[in-house]
Design goal:
Elements (H helix, E strand, L loop, with lengths): L2 E3 L2 E5 L11 H9 L4 E8 L5 E3 L4 E2 H4 L1 E4 L5 H7 L7 H7 L4 E5 L6 H13 L6 E5 L1 H10 L4 E6 L7 H7 L3 E5 L5 H9 L3 E5 L4 H10 L3 E4 L2 H12 L1 E3 L24
Parallel strand pairs: 2-3, 2-12, 3-7, 7-8, 8-9, 9-10, 10-11, 11-12
Antiparallel strand pairs: 1-13, 3-4, 5-6
Helix pairs in contact: 5-6, 9-10
Length: 260
Amino acid sequence: MSTPRRVTAVAHRGDPYLFRENTLDSLRSALRRGADAVEIDVRLTRDGVPVLLHDETLKRLWEQDRPLHSLSADEVRGLTAGRVPTLAEALAATDGSRLMLDLPGGPGERAARRIVDVVRECGAQDRVYYCAGPAAMLAVRAADPAAEIALTWTTLAPPRPALLAAVRPRWLNYRFGLVDRPLAERVHGDGCLLSVWTPDTRRSMRRLIALGVDSITTNRVDVLCALRDRGGAVTGPPPHVRAVDPAQVPSPVDDLHTQG
């Protein structure tokens, strides 16, 4: 008889309906509300310090129209009253919890190596995994042959076998609207776990759980946890797949947010 398999609940940039995204308060709130992991965005400052920021500039969240790549870590701290955390600070604040590091902007191998080095220096390799498109994930794989990777894929056409062989992802990470049963079966048949982003309605979450997705990244992690824990678990694990180890505040419009 199959054993229940819980969908992994990943909080998108923390708890952005309550706290500004990618801040320590947002991360801590998501974990308090039951998240199994928190997705964060990581970019480098001018002096090579990984910090938590999705956008290329500080304008949307911090009302400072300054490109991150033109600022030192100290300048970012000054312009945001210290509220843009470094990756090292985020790792310390979430000690013992899983973090999904999204790398927007397609960092090259040098930037990816710096991010991987900080994770290693903080002793967090076993609780961190990485997501982004093929170029960024190839750079992470070069920097850390043992890294856990969620390869973000944005089309219905499957990744080429040569790419999968080079990246060696544990997860394939899809926009939730693309996912149907044939796609879920194909991903599992290829030996990967299926991660999706970013449904925010109960209806979408129920549909995805019924399809057998393994992880859902959402802005409403409290809703997902409540739905899942009321009996939304599916039976599994899927065939040929290893078991998973257990703001600007966004406008409350469901199912419109994107990962990255």
